[in-house]
Amino acid sequence: MKSKLEEIYASLLEEIGENPEREGLIKTPHRAAEAMRFVTRGYRMNLEDIVNGAIFKADSDDMVIVRGIEFFSMCEHHLFPFFGHANIAYIPDGRIIGLSKLARITEMFARRLQVQERLTVQIAEAVQEILKPKGVGVVLQAKHLCMMARGVEKKSSDMVTSHVLGVFRTDRSTRMEFMNLLDLKEA
Ligand SMILES: Nc1nc2c(ncn2[C@@H]2O[C@H](COP(=O)(O)OP(=O)(O)OP(=O)(O)O)[C@@H](O)[C@H]2O)c(=O)[nH]1
Ligand SMILES: [Zn+2]
C-alpha cells in the first residue's frame, strides 16, 4: 500500500505536468518519500538517546573545539537543502562530551526544517543543556540552494551564523580565541 507521502509525491508529479506512470517515474514517489523521511529524521530523535551517557569527568578547563562538522539541512521556506559546516566549542566545567556526540547533536537539529539562525541556537543550547559547560560557541557556515539555484541565483554566496553562551558571551578574549581558531573559507 502507498503511504500518504507517496501519494502526495505522485500528485505533485502530475501537478507539474509529468506522467507519474512513465517508466522513469514509477518508483519516484516511493524514493522521494524515503528521501524526505531521511532528511527530516531529526524530528524522531532526542538528545538523551543520541548522547547516550557519553559524558566523562575531566579536570581540564581548556577550550575544546570541533571544526568542520558537515551538515545537510532543509530550508523551511522553500524545502530546498542548505548545507555546510558547523564549528562547536565549549569550555568544560568538570565534564567533557564524546567527540562524536557534537556531530550527532548537529545532525539531530539539521535533519529538520530549519532556518540557519535557529539551527545555530538549538545546537548551542543542546550542548549547554546536556553538558553544562562554562560556555558554548557555535558557528555555522552554509550554502542555501534556495538562493543559489532559484530566486536571486547567487551561487557563490554563503551564510555565517553564530551563537555564544556563558563565558563565550561574557568574556571577549574567550570569544576571540574561538573565532581565531576557526578556519572559515568555503562552506
Ligand atoms: N534568515 C534566513 N533566511 C533564509 C534562510 N533560508 C532561506 N531564507 C530566506 O527566506 C526568505 C523568504 O523570502 P520570501 O520573499 O518570503 O520568499 P521568496 O519570494 O521565495 O524569496 P526569494 O528567495 O527572495 O525569491 C528569502 O529571503 C530566503 O533567502 C535562513 O536560513 N535564514
Ligand atoms: Zn529557502
TrEMBL record:
Pfam families: GTP_cyclohydroI. Pathway: Cofactor biosynthesis; 7,8-dihydroneopterin triphosphate biosynthesis; 7,8-dihydroneopterin triphosphate from GTP: step 1/1. Zn(2+) binds at C75, H78, C146. Keywords: GTP-binding, Hydrolase, Metal-binding, Nucleotide-binding, One-carbon metabolism, Zinc. It is an enzyme of class 3 (hydrolase). One of its GO terms (molecular function) is zinc ion binding. One of its GO terms (biological process) is tetrahydrobiopterin biosynthetic process. InterPro entries: GTP-CH-I_C/QueF, GTP-CH-I_N, GTP_CycHdrlase_I, GTP_CycHdrlase_I_CS, GTP_CycHdrlase_I_dom. It catalyses: GTP + H2O = 7,8-dihydroneopterin 3'-triphosphate + formate + H(+). Homopolymer. PANTHER family: GTP CYCLOHYDROLASE 1, GTP CYCLOHYDROLASE I. This is GTP cyclohydrolase 1. It comes from Chthonomonas calidirosea (strain DSM 23976 / ICMP 18418 / T49).
